[in-house]
């Protein structure tokens, strides 16, 4: 079996417990299209160089990376890329979409550590150190993701100094992001403060700069609860309080922050 076929087969196996027959057929078609497009591109160095996570690498490193990076696979919503405590096999590179990284407690409760977006590499720390994956990675929307095997990643780091430095920077960003998220959760004094921090963070990351104060709310109340360590019912009640106080307004999937100053007061030490 070819490397490309093996990667696509792994995608099927990963999502098989989450998808029905019709969805699997759709995924298979998408993967086949992605695989076909990969071969049509031939030398994809120009494509890789335009991706933010690889733009600082030399042409020689990009070429070496392209020879080991497996073809991009389209994963459906709810596909598990890897599970907590599973042996690390390599890193997943997110080209499009969002992936949640979460931990599961003994009582069955889930805590979302962070949400990874396009341009991020998942499982890097575990892959480099040879440890099991620290968290579970699951797609939150249809996502385009490629894969680099552990042995290939380590070989590239030994052979190309710029790639090794780039991986160190990625690890640093991942560490800083996790520290920030955990600090916001543990140092907040109330659910209102934690929820305000999350809303302000999403607002600052919003791509829609044409309409200030607006962003698309793509997470459910249950997922928000998993991010801030509370229950879905508590999140629903607190959002209702924010709406009643005219801090926010919701119009379909769009959330409007009407009073940013009021939310900022909640998170100011």
Q: What is the secondary structure topology, with strand pairs?
A:
Layout: H1 3-15, H2 21-41, H3 45-50, H4 59-68, E1 70-75, E2 80-82, E3 90-96, E4 99-104, E5 110-116, E6 121-122, H5 124-129, E7 136-139, E8 143-149, H6 150-159, H7 161-187, H8 191-205, E9 214-216, H9 221-228, H10 232-244, E10 248-251, E11 254-257, H11 260-267
Helix pairs in contact: 1-2, 6-7, 8-11, 9-10
Describe the structure.
This protein is an alpha+beta fold and 269 residues long. It folds into two domains: 3-185, Jelly Rolls (Sandwich); 189-267, Arc Repressor Mutant, subunit A (Orthogonal Bundle), CATH 1.10.10. Helix content is 51%, strand content 20%. The protein has a four-stranded antiparallel β-sheet. The chain has a four-stranded antiparallel β-sheet with strand order 2-7-4-5. A hairpin with a 5-residue loop joins strand 4 (99-104) and strand 5 (110-116).
Descriptive keywords:
alpha+beta, Jelly Rolls, Arc Repressor Mutant, subunit A, 11 helices, 11 strands, 51% helix, elongated
- The low-pLDDT segments are 1-47
If you consult CATH, what is the topology of the largest domain? Jelly Rolls
Strand content: 15-25%
Top-tier CATH class of the largest domain: Mainly Beta
In short:
With 269 residues, the protein is of the alpha+beta class.
């Amino acid at each position: 079996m070819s490397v490309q076929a093996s990667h696509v087969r792994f995608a099927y196996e990963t999502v098989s417990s989450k998808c029905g027959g019709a969805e699997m057929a759709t995924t298979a078609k998408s993967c086949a299209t992605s695989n076909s497009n990969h071969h049509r591109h031939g030398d994809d160095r120009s494509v890789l160089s335009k991706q933010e996570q690889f733009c600082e690498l030399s042409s020689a490193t990009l070429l070496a990376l392209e020879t080991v990076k497996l073809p991009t696979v389209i994963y459906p919503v709810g596909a598990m890329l890897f599970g907590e405590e599973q042996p690390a096999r390599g890193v997943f590179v997110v080209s499009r979409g969002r992936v949640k990284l979460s931990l599961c407690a003994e009582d069955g409760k889930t805590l979302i550590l962070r949400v990874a977006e396009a341009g991020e590499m998942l499982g890097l720390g575990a892959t480099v150190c040879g440890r099991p994956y620290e968290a579970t990675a699951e797609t939150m929307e249809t996502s385009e993701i490629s894969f680099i095997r552990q042995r290939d990643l380590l070989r590239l780091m030994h052979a190309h100094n710029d790639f090794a430095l780039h991986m160190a920077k990625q690890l640093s960003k991942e560490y800083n992001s996790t520290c920030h998220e955990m600090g916001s959760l543990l140092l907040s004094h109330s659910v209102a403060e934690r929820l305000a921090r999350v809303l302000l963070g999403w607002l600052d990351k919003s791509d829609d700069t044409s309409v200030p104060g607006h962003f698309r709310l793509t997470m459910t109340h249950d997922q928000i609860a998993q991010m801030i360590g509370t229950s879905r019912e508590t999140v629903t009640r607190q959002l209702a309080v924010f709406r009643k106080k005219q801090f926010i307004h919701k119009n379909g999937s769009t959330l409007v922050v009407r009073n940013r100053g009021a939310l900022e007061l909640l998170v100011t030490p």
